[in-house]
Amino acid sequence: MSELPNCPKCDSEYTYEDGSLIVCPDCGHEFTLESLQESKQDVVEFRDAFGTPLADGDTVTVIKDLKVGGTSSTLKIGTKVKNIRLVGGDHDIDCKIKGFGGMKLKSEFVKKA
């Protein structure tokens, strides 16, 4: 008997085969081995300007003066940004910066602190 993977949704080890699908009896999630392998390949890795991997909750430092769109303010070099959240799209980082509020930053303009 082949070893079946844990459920990707709830991590239950009690999955079983039902035809071409793998079913989780705990949460009811149905998936295939192909979809599981594709989802592992779709994982995006975010890196700072120096190639260091970033994760949710990290603290980063701005490495370049950045103009804040819609205002005449500038985000100065060396500004620390705590508790970042990584997102997809044209900007990689959602964060709140004291004195500026909610902002989106590109990972190429920060370094991990």
Strand content: 25-35%
Arithmetic mean pLDDT? 88
Determine the number of helices (DSSP H or I, runs of at least 4 residues): 1
Rg on CA atoms, Å: 20 Å
DSSP strand tally: 11
- Largest sheet: spatial strand order: 1-2-3
Structural class: mainly beta
Order of helices and strands: EEEHEEEEEEEE
Q: Strand count, sense and closure of the main sheet?
A: 3 strands, antiparallel
Shape category? elongated
- Relative helix content: under 10%
As residue ranges, the low-confidence spans are none
Gap between N and C termini, in Å? 48 Å
Organism: Coraliomargarita algicola
Protein name: Zinc ribbon domain-containing protein YjdM
Family: Belongs to the YjdM family.
Question: What report would you give on this structure?
Answer:
The structure is a single chain. With 113 residues, this protein is mainly beta. The chain has one helix at residues 33-41, and strands spanning 16-18, 21-23, 30-31, 60-62, 66-67, 74-75, 80-81, 85-86, 93-97, 101-105, 110-112. The strands form 4 sheets. A 3-stranded antiparallel sheet has the order 1-2-3. Strands 7-4-11 form a 3-stranded antiparallel sheet, with no helix packed on it. Strand 5 and strand 6 (74-75) form a beta hairpin. The longest helix has 9 residues, at 33-41. The radius of gyration is 20 Å and the shape is elongated. The N and C termini lie far apart (48 Å). The model has no long low-confidence stretch (mean pLDDT 88).
